[in-house]
Amino acid sequence: MGLVTPHFIDERLNSFLSEQNAGESDRIMAVVSSFLPDAQCQSNWFVLTKERLLIVAEMNGKYEILFSYILKDLKEVRSQALKGGGVIIVESNDVKQEVFRYPNSQGALFGSICDCIKGFLNNGQALTFEDTLKVVMKEELNKFCSKCHRPKLSDIKACPFCIDRKKVVFRILSYAKPFSGQLIIVVVLLAFSTLLQLLPAIITGKIVDKVLAQGQVDLLVPLLLALGGSMIIRTALGIVHARISVDIGANVTNVVRKETFDHLQKLGLNFFDKQNTGSLMSRVSHDSQSLQGFLSEGIQYTVHNFFLIFFIGITLIYLNPVLGCLILLPTPFVVLISKLSWRKLFSDFRQYSDSASNLTAFLSDSLNGIREVKTSGQEVRMQKRFAFWSDESRDKIVKAEKTLQSLIPLLNLIIQSSLIFVWYFGSKDVLFAQQNNPSDFSIGDLVAMIGLMGILFGPLQLLTRLNDWMTRAITAADRIFEILDVEPDVKNQEDAQNTKRLVGKVVFDNVVFGYEKHKPVIKTLSLDVKPGEMIGLVGKSGVGKSTIMKLLMRLYEVNDGSITIDGRNIKEYSIETLRENISVVMQDSFLFNRSIADNISFGHPEATRKEIILASIQANAHEFIMKSSHGYDTMVGERGLRMSGGERQRIAIARALLGDPRILILDEATSAVDTETEQKIQNALQHLIKGRTTFAIAHRLSTLRNADRLFVIEDGVVVESGSHDELVKKEDGIYKKLVTIQTDWAKKVFIGGD
Amino acid sequence: MEEGFVETINDTVVFLDPKRVSFEFNEKLFLVKMTYENESYDGISALPAFPLSSRSEFVHIYKGADSTKLKECVGLIEDINELNEGSFDALSKSIQMSCMMPTITKINLIYDEYYNFHWTVETDRGNLEFSIGTPRRYVFRVSNGALLIKDLKDDYYYIPDPTKLDANSRKQLLPIL
Ligand SMILES: Nc1ncnc2c1ncn2[C@@H]1O[C@H](COP(=O)(O)OP(=O)(O)OP(=O)(O)O)[C@@H](O)[C@H]1O
Ligand SMILES: [Mg+2]
User: Fold this and answer.
1) Which tens digit of pLDDT belongs to each residue from A505-532?
2) How many residue contacts between A and B have a Cβ separation below 8 Å?
């Protein structure tokens, strides 16, 4: 069976391929791209059979084979990223050809396909070839909605066109289930209060008829009492159901919000790599807010207005069937106009909120980067840019509001126009009834009808907006559910081992890892570290030193190979065990917006003040902390800005030391401190390192002087290993070269060479 | 100090003399051939340093499409407009093959549906349809007024100067900008 991209192969192409012996049974895969080899936009097929590679395009209404190769004659097949897309290069008989072009979105897909073909050419195993491809193709398919085949908005889930609205509404309501008693009370109260809302109009009619027309003065006080009573009761009911609704809305939102945050904490780093933090933040705070609006106000208004229209409709038709219908005459017009204009309005308002977001984004950017702005003297340019976004935001809101403000009076006019008809036909009816049968239709009835009309048109306008209201709430809910539906990839195995104290023997066995699977950063890397050893990792910027450490902490899952601690795969330990036994000072340590003490004890909230102070002394941080305005209680400013780079690092070191870890990771932990301070920290670390497995990463090689062994990393593998003394003896060694460069440079700077 | 700096640039990157270099396009094999004095390279690839804001300037010529490593770079053409006509066309073709985002020349319709905008456009490479989400996150303004558009699938499209589009195209763009 052949694998095919979402764009399915039609009969005509299929039969063409069959003629070429590339029919469904022979085919391994067929993928379509939107570029011809000369980069013109047109469908172009990449077809693989067990023996051949075909590139097929449609030329002048006929399928044509542009290139055809026997797979085993090929020397190499590889993909190369270009701008906005990429190209597949095929090499055979010493001729290189660019045979196929694909758009940006298919980069990962064709990268993997080429890897598979490479594997096939090297060891000729057709089976793995297909299995890997299936995974890749599944990933490709995942980008599209399985129902409508449209590309999806995010790589998580949910196609806005295929959201099953009912399902989402039920899911929202399922969160309201614990409050179902309260919900029923709200609905019942709403029904009563809606009925009471009709009373004033009806009573006014009675006052006109009985008191004013027929002179029954003794009825005036009871009628007015009833009027006042109904208003008081209705107000009371209104207060009660509004309060209950607020309760339900806030509680449900709270549950959803907490659940979302809890879930986010469980998700692996690779989820966050792909997501924009701002968008996640808005999902937790803003979307759950929209949900609350819908649950507490939306449901209330909706139910209320349905009752209102229903009850008023009945009353009107009961009072005077013909006139009742007349009143409802403008309804379709109101609905139609609102519907038509709402589309535009909605888009206008969305543009406004987009421009407002742009403004906020620019604001936060320029304030976060205020140091850069000031040091490069760009204040005036920033002012101009801000003015641009600010003006744009003004223009958008003016446009949206002007439309809205013209629309409302227009709708009112249409609604009020029916008043003229009602007065006209109503007055005639009243006069006619007075001459024939006064009980048919009295002046009071007419007054009551006109009163009811006033109430009716409010909800009519609202109803037209209901759809959008629902849409917004449903989309908000769906965005939240999207997060809830992501399975955490790094999680405890069922029989995860809780080990209080590890010994610290670390082995990497042929580890392969890439942040994106098709671009491995670590390629078959092997390390063997004895307990208590101090290891230095050396290598150029970007070779993956930090990545290796992240894998050891199991922040990411390896793609292939294994990492063991004390002879057991790290997957078999509980994540808690790993966190307790491994401490890390990260290259870009983050300080939370809390006190210094809280930051140091972040991983160990139970630590005593004494322990915190001792750790800080060892990290050479005590002195400057004591100098800070409130000592250990000094609040770290937003983004840790009020600390110098070196100060931040030392706090992070103290944080790492506090836990008495078995394995210590120092990733450029002292890169930002002066040599003298580093010396002090190193000395402090010396006795801490004793008995602990330590990994140290540093570009300043003098930092690694004390390491028992050094591993030099290049292109994803260990290329050299040994002690400092061994490595500097190696002729042509990479490490030796690095050391020479650094000492030469130091000589130049400090001794003042040429 | 200054001089040494320039020297190193010249050591690693050669500026090619537009008068002495020529390019040819092989339509069968989709290959571009470069000839410089007596040397010739088959299947070069050309990458401008500013693929969005200025495609015709600082075009790097690589020996093949295999890599963008500096040592594979044959040289650099400061402005391709200084080439003779045939070479200009061939090199433009090569640039088009390595900067694959289609340039939108005309917008027939942008239709808005549930936070999504569906575009029907004409480009320098043929007619296309694609969809984007909220413009704020899918349409980017490049420095000199150009627009870079990323669609829902992560493919890129490009409008060099929106003000130069025809009236209907500009009207269609209104809700986006
Ligand atoms: N979260 C991520 N998502 C995608 N790619 C990443 C991510 N983190 C790092 N990379 C990439 O992986 C490679 C290795 O990064 P890593 O941080 O491990 O390098 P490093 O050796 O620690 O470098 P340095 O010495 O500069 O700290 C780099 O090419 C980097 O761009
Ligand atoms: Mg690093």
Assistant:
1) 999 999 989 887 667 889 889 999 999 8
2) 112
